[in-house]
Amino acid sequence: MSRRRYEYPKIASSEITPEAIYLKRRSLMGLMAGTLAGAALSPFGAAAAAEHASGGAALKYSAVNKAIDGFSTDESLTPFEDATSYNNFYEFGMDKTDPKDFAHAMTTDPWSVKVGGLVSKPGQLHLEDLLSGFDLEERVYRLRCVEAWSMVVPWVGFPLADLLKRFEPKSEGKFVEFKTAYRRAEMRGTRSFSSSIDWPYREGLRIDEAMHPLTLMAVGLYGKTLPNQNGAPLRLVVPWKYGFKSIKSVVEINVVDKQPETSWQSLAPQEYGFYSNVNPEVDHPRWSQRYERRLPSSLFKPNRIETQLFNGYADQVASLYAGMDLARDY
Amino acid sequence: MVTQIRSHRSTPEWILRAITKHKYFNPALRGLVFLLSLVPFALICYRVALQDLGPDPAKVLMHETGDWMLRFLVLVLLATPLRRYGWGHLSRFRRMLGLFLFFYATLHLLVFAQVYVGWSGQVLLEELSERPYVLVGFVAWLVLLPLAITSTQAWQRRLKRRWKTLHQWVYLVPPLAVLHIYWLARSDYGIVLLYGLVFALLLGWRLQKKLSK
User: Do A93 and A188 meet the contact criterion of CB atoms below 8 Å apart?
Assistant: First the structure.
């Protein structure tokens, strides 16, 4: 609510021009096509429908392995247009549309990711390594934001485990910490005087969570490289945790022996825990987590559904937390 | 005798006089303010009809209606200080602006009932008991409700002196509204600071007047 400037509603005067109406109709048609294809065919149908809208480069990847539980879902995909225009990426502003409007300022080529800490072979990965140095595969995951909305997104990427193994984590490594790029010149949100986030954005996982087969390093969505607003060129996707755990535009990965402090934890420890597993029984202090709006939602059909424990991935991940009090370790 | 209008810095006095004193202009101006106040609502309806609210209309609609409620609250509270400093035009429309403030607050509540509560009494009770910002917002609306109902001249006559006391309850709304947006902020407190400062000035001015009497 607070993350807006004092300004008139964003109705550009250009919106009444025929061209804009034309574009709008085209995007609506694309949206419908995406939904239909997603429901009727496979994710690839939707990917084909979204092809024209995507600015990303085509990726070579293997089709989603539907035989493995959790790797895909039959739920309707969130259209490409929505998944790439409604984002939380506070480095570019607090509004949901800010990332799409301003993330293009971020340089993603060249890009390098420093991998270090408690590993036998510390080193760097460059953009080419990320895009062609791993076996890319598609995963269709639910994404549940802590703000009680959710999407279904077809990601392209590789397991984080594949990346970590390449650098040979030592046995003392109990956690993995991640950092997002922090470039004031390119990220207007980091220059905001009223933001209380201590940049760079940081996240973390326990090592067993990091090595879990569901934990993905995504380089693309809808079959193409990630748009900047979705965390190009490399982001984490942990489908059973709230969206803010899935850190974007990663530049640093360290294996560490102590639980790293995350950005949200240091900002409001009573609201955001280290684990942040999706859990309808543990409410955020300011809003219920029992329900979510599956996007796209509308005024007359809010598409409000019940949130599932571990975002529906309990069969795959509940064992990681056996014996833990999830209300205390939230 | 025509009361003296002190000239506004940027508007020539004769224009102000023509607009506000002329027998034809006054109702026209009232109509204009009414229509202008409906523009945000019209834009919201337009965006709903065109499905131009993005994938999550709930959020956009809550922000738009809440923002406009706050803006009208600022206008209503500005009327008296501005009149005291010689610019009485806003206070002519204070009643109308107050009703628009209630109008946007009610839209805010209706959107909440539709998209977050789903018109379920049980969910509403849950929200009120578990989400303090919801409770605070709802209390603010409840404070505004009797003020909107008794805003007519008939009620003003009926309640006599008590009418003014009742309508001073509006001073409860700014602190409730600021608390509401403070509890909703995740990491950026810019807008909270802005409204907090504006309301502190507007209420502080009144307190200072009262104390110096």
Answer: yes
